[in-house]
Design a protein that fits this description.
Helix content: 25-40%
Largest sheet: 10 strands, mixed
Radius of gyration: 23 Å
Length: 628
């Protein structure tokens, strides 16, 4: 409801930068945002005769490490490219309207989730359309050509020179630290007969990579086996800078131990590389925290990889999501080749087509302008739209760089980059999770019950330059979403401060303090698993459900863009600033803190913390009153 924040942002020039295209210039009026446009089509590049444009634009040569002039196969050690051709939905408007109808009480589609086959038959390309693209790739010399079962993805392998010919583009690159870094420095086109069918072509570049949103604690202490994490400092009975395990987070967020677990709900962690150690570390953590062993499976996606650089991330994701849920029916680790945009798209496609879990988690992201440039935003939004229609929820971390998503030249310090939100968090079809600093009433020398929270300065959040708001953000709860027609994040938040409330994670059997929105996002998935089990896995996509709860309990009239909730700071705790919060239907409304002026917390929905964090026991009761 904080319209004043929007005006302040515009006055400071920040909102203009965040909602503009290249160089801060306004977006073309004809551009349709992928989240809500009539077809998801972008303003097209000028195509050569006989060709038509795709959403895959040119990668600026400055974004290729060091720049280069070598071409195609001349790049040393360049393996055949794994090219991912994404197709447009046959009925994208209908797919968006379906999700809205599934959360409209009284509608024939209300809470009726589709199977992948049903969704494909109604909205996705026909088998003949997908086969026409596959045939073209084979004619161009591509091998191992595959059509995904939902017919949104056609993939295959080819040399760089064949890919250049097939998509009328030029690939340039260099070798940095023994690795080929390359990209299409001109847009990707397809034959004119594919106009309106082929959306984007991924895999022509590896310059843009997702980054995990994880930060290690600077205060982690050695612990004696069997002891819970201690407080860094106790001040007037308040645990300041506590180190938490799953049981401590449960106490802090009012989750009753051994009651209302996620036992009937399956969850997934999106990962990459060699995840062999992940299950071993999960079992070590379960033994340490006296948690039950959860059923565990790895789902391979693409070619195997020996990369273990993300182990601490995948350890964190698996240990906190299942630890917060206490039990799940199954934990799936989806394991793709890399964090490159094309590999993440293949991973999302596999997760959607499998339809094995009610929830998934993506603790990674990139500046959304990158996802827009290479076309992955177009493809992933479609896949996540299908997931929502199937009753699946993807949680995504908003980033750890404050209001500036880490970019190629970012330092990694809060707000060192230009104001820009991260993708996939900015997608309308994910739940974007921000981070807070959590303080608790000390239990001896360890964390105890909830005392209060405030915005963690490193949390991501802001206004999308490319995505339009989903309908549950356009009812006045988010003023900028309503008045300016932009997708804004975060949606919700949980503890993320790597020094204020880090988790004690087992990595290679050794304990580490880890935080970031990589912590808050899978923690939120664990909470959701509990709620889904309680409601017999019939809640569906979490975003409209949560906004519906907030809409029912907030004191302002629905649709108002001027009213601000008037709850007094601290009226649900005895906390003093900055820890004061206010209750709104199972949420702790975060009232203090900033992730970069003017994106400050205030009463009501706000950029860094969204609707707020959870009081689980209250939410368990209030969820049934969601207006969606």
């Amino acid at each position: 409801m904080n319209k004043s924040l929007l005006f302040a942002a515009m006055a400071a020039g920040v909102f203009t930068a965040a909602c503009s295209g290249n160089g801060g210039s306004p977006l073309p009026p004809s551009m349709t945002a992928p989240g809500s446009g009539a077809s998801g089509l972008r303003t097209p590049e000028k195509a050569p005769p006989g060709w038509t444009a795709t959403a895959t634009r040119a990668i600026p040569e400055k974004d290729l490490a060091g720049g280069a002039s070598a071409k195609g196969d001349a790049l040393p050690n360049l393996k055949p490219l794994h090219v991912v051709v994404g197709l447009y939905m046959r009925n994208p408007a209908g797919a968006r309207e379906l999700v809205a109808s599934q959360y409209s009480p009284g509608h024939a589609s209300y809470r009726k989730w589709l199977s992948p086959g049903e969704f494909t038959a109604m909205y996705n390309p026909t088998a003949a359309q997908a086969e026409s693209v596959a045939s073209y790739l084979r004619q161009q010399g591509f091998t191992k050509v595959k059509i995904d079962s939902n017919r949104l993805i056609v993939s295959g392998f080819a040399s760089a020179s064949r890919a250049e010919t097939a998509f009328h583009t030029s690939i340039r690159g260099t070798v940095a630290n023994g690795t080929a870094v390359y990209g299409n420095v001109t847009p990707a086109f397809v034959p004119a007969k594919f106009h309106g069918l082929v959306a984007a072509v991924l895999g022509l570049s590896n310059a843009y990579q997702m980054h995990v949103h994880l930060l290690k604690s600077q205060h982690m202490r050695p612990m004696t086996a069997g002891t819970p994490p201690p407080c860094l400092e106790v001040v007037n009975g308040i645990c300041i800078g506590g180190e938490y395990g799953p049981s401590q987070y449960q106490v802090a967020y009012d989750v009753p131990a051994k009651l209302h677990t996620g036992a009937k709900t399956a969850v997934a962690v999106m990962a990459e590389g060699d995840v062999t150690q992940v299950e071993k570390d999960l079992r070590t953590a379960e033994k340490f925290w006296a948690l039950p062993h959860v059923p565990y499976s790895v789902v391979p996606v693409g070619s195997p990889s020996t990369d273990t650089s993300g182990l601490d991330e995948w350890d964190l994701d698996t240990q906190i999501s299942t630890g917060m849920a206490e039990r799940v029916s199954q934990l799936y680790v989806y394991d793709t080749t890399s964090l490159g945009d094309s590999d993440i798209t293949l991973e999302y496609s596999k997760w959607v087509n499998d339809n094995l879990t009610q929830a998934g988690n993506s603790s990674f992201g990139e500046a959304e302008s990158f996802a827009y440039t290479d076309g992955s935003m177009t493809l992933d939004d479609q896949l996540l739209n299908e997931a929502a229609a199937q009753g699946q929820t993807m949680f995504a971390s908003t980033g750890d760089n404050g209001s500036g998503c880490p970019v190629l030249l970012a330092t990694g310090a809060p707000n060192s980059g230009a104001p820009e939100v991260c993708y996939p968090a900015s997608s309308p079809y994910v739940v974007a999770v921000g981070g807070t600093t959590l303080d608790t009433n000390a239990n001896g020398t360890g964390p105890g019950t909830y005392y209060g929270e405030y915005v963690w300065t490193g949390t991501g959040g802001g206004y999308s330059a490319f995505e339009s708001p989903p309908y549950w953000q356009k009812n006045g709860i988010c003023a900028a979403c309503t008045s300016a027609g932009v997708r804004a994040i975060a949606d919700i938040a949980m503890c993320g401060d790597n020094n204020g409330c880090p988790m004690d994670v087992f990595v290679n059997a050794t304990q580490e303090g880890v935080g970031g929105t990589s912590l808050s996002s899978p923690m939120s998935m664990g909470i959701w698993a509990r709620l889904e089990t309680r409601f017999h896995n019939n809640l569906g996509f979490a975003a409209p459900v949560y906004y519906g709860v907030y809409g029912y309990y907030e004191p302002c009239p629905m649709g108002s863009t001027t009213c601000v909730p008037s709850g007094e700071p601290g009226d649900d705790t005895s906390a003093v600033p900055p820890d004061t919060t206010a209750p709104i239907g199972g949420f702790h409304d975060i009232l203090y803190g900033s992730n970069g002026i003017p994106n400050s917390a205030a009463p009501g929905w706000d950029v860094p913390s969204g609707l707020g964090t959870f009081d689980f026991s209250v939410m368990l009761t209030d969820l049934k009153n969601s207006i969606f």
